[in-house]
Amino acid sequence: MFETLVTLAGRLVDDPVQRRTGDGTVWARFRLVSTERRYDAEIADWVDGNVMFVSVHCWRTVGRNALSTLKRNDPVIVHGRMRIYGQTTELADKRDVQIDAYHLGLDLSRCDDVVRSAATEHAALAAVA
Question: What is the pTM of this model?
Answer without folding.
Answer: 0.77
